[in-house]
Each structure stands twice: as C-alpha cells, then as structure tokens.
Amino acid sequence: EPEVTQTPSHQVTQMGQEVILRCVPISNHLYFYWYRQILGQKVEFLVSFYNNEISEKSEIFDDQFSVERPDGSNFTLKIRSTKLEDSAMYFCASSGLSGNTIYFGEGSWLTVV
Amino acid sequence: GQSLEQPSEVTAVEGAIVQINCTYQTSGFYGLSWYQQHDGGAPTFLSYNALDGLEETGRFSSFLSRSDSYGYLLLQELQMKDSASYFCAVRDQAAGNKLTFGGGTRVLVKP
Question: For all residues of chain B together, what is the average pLDDT?
Fold first, then answer.
C-alpha cells in the first residue's frame, strides 16, 4: 500500500539552528500538508500546499517556516531559526484533490535544545 | 474560534462497544473525520462523514448530525489492539483541505 515517508525520524538541534524536514508524499496525490503535535497534545495544522503554492496556512506557520517542493517527489518543511517551543512531532501528509482522506507519514520528532 | 470537544479517556473490556462523541463549533463545515493514533505513531484515517447518517466500515462506524454539530465513532467488538487515541477532525473550509483536530480520546481496552 502506498505510504507517506518522512526523514529524519528524529532530529536533535540547537536553538537558533535551521532544520529541514523531508517528506515523500504518495505519488498520485495533489495536496500536501504539514501538521505538528507537541507531546501529549492534539494534532495542529501548519500548512497545505497545492499546485506548487501554499493553499492555506495557520497562525503557527509564521515567517520562520517555509515549504518547498524542490522536485517531483519531495516536499520539505524548513524551520529557519528553531526555538525551544518548536520541539514536537512533525507529520507530513498528502491527499487527493477532494481532501476527504488524508494520509499521514510516521512523523519526524524534532527536539530543540 | 474553532473548537471540538471529545472525552479525554474511555476504558472498556475486550468485546465491548465504545462510543466516542464529538461536538464541534467551527466557522464552516465540510466534513468530520476520525483518526486513530497509537502511541508514537501516525494518525491513521478511519472514516469521513460529509452528510448526516451512519457510515459503517467493519467494526468501526461513524455518525454525523450536521444540525446538532455532533458526531460519534462507534467501536464494536473491542480488541486489545484498539487501545489507542482517537481524534475527531473537522474540515472547516473548501480551500486548503485544512483539518482542525479535537483533543483526542484515549481508549484503553482491558482483558
């Protein structure tokens, strides 16, 4: 069964450093997403991406965040200058055009120290 | 603002039936989804309701009442592997396919 894959599974970074989280969405999907989940809390929407541009973003997704689809398969989330409160599990997800069924990857656990 | 309310925890025995309720207040509504998440794992899609009524998928069923801003997930014939957190999530707008998640219900299945 097709799946969303993410790398790295776990990253530890120092405060102020830049981090890039990578994702390979399901190949025939058109919408791509990033969500995050702080330990013990609910899943929070960050951004959706369609047709090579941001479709929707949340207030969490401020200027330190950016997304990119550098080639036909990868989808990345960059955090420019990490803060302690960015420590969370970051989930990449993808869906078809309707968005009725969204498939999540296994997540990238980011620890900022 | 957007809010989704669901119970924080439910405990039941193997073979039992559990109903997880979800009430929502959102600026728009296009559908209600349910996701299962095991500890340390990814949210896994279970069901999506856009219209009123019951959707059945094996042991799991989901119900929606748009007029009551209410839905539920019904877990039948509970198995140990069903111990997980269950999240309701609302798609609140047509553009962007954004999902707003509830706080999750932790289901503990005991032998």
Answer: 94
Compute the distance between CA of residue A39 and CA of residue A78 in angstroms, rounded to an integer: 20
- Determine the Cα angle at B22 with ends B20 and B25, to 5°: 175
- Beta partners for residue A67, in sequence order: A77
Residue type, A36: R
Write the CB contacts of B84 (distance below 8 Å, at least 6 apart in sequence): B36, B37, B38, B39, B106, B107
Query: Could you list the pLDDT tens digit for every one of the 113 residues in chain A?
Result: 779 999 999 999 999 999 999 999 999 999 999 999 999 889 999 999 999 999 999 999 999 999 999 887 899 999 999 999 999 999 999 999 888 899 999 999 999 99
Which residue of A37, A38, A42 to mutate against B (max B Cβ within 10 Å)?
A42
3-state helix, strand, coil in chain A (%, to 5): 5, 50, 45
Quote the strand ranges of B38-111, DSSP E: 44-49, 53-57, 60-65, 70-75, 84-91, 99-101, 105-110
Q: Which residues in chain A have their CB less than 8 angstroms from residue B35's CB?
A: 43, 104
* β-bridge mates for residue A112, sequence order: A13
